[in-house]
Amino acid sequence: RIMIKSQDKRRFIRLEIPVELVFIRKAGNVLKNAVSKDISSEGLRFSTDERLNPGEELELKLILTSAANPVHAAGKVVWVSDASIDRKECEVGIEFVKIEEDNKNTFLKFLCDMVYNQAKKVNL
User: Fold this and answer.
1) CA dihedral 37, 99, 76, 27 (to 10 degrees)
2) pTM, rounded to two decimals
């Protein structure tokens, strides 16, 4: 589903699609799996039980259904929601800092295909 909010300050459309990912904390080399709640060309949001801090840098591997290999990127934690008593996980907003050159086309094609497929569904 494509999510566009009129009050949204983002410059790019966010897609509410699950994308499997692995993130690695640069401090401590902790490797964790997660699934995105939404994604755009500038960042993504996911839930994790790992306590991350705003400003922290992560290495990311995005597992795209249409790609043979993961897309490698670097990201920065922009915001973290607090976990509650009944929810042990917190939500994390990541801004992409760098996507490896040989992965950019794969990543952007994936996003374009998702937008195109959603638009086709709406127009049917």
Assistant:
1) 110
2) 0.81
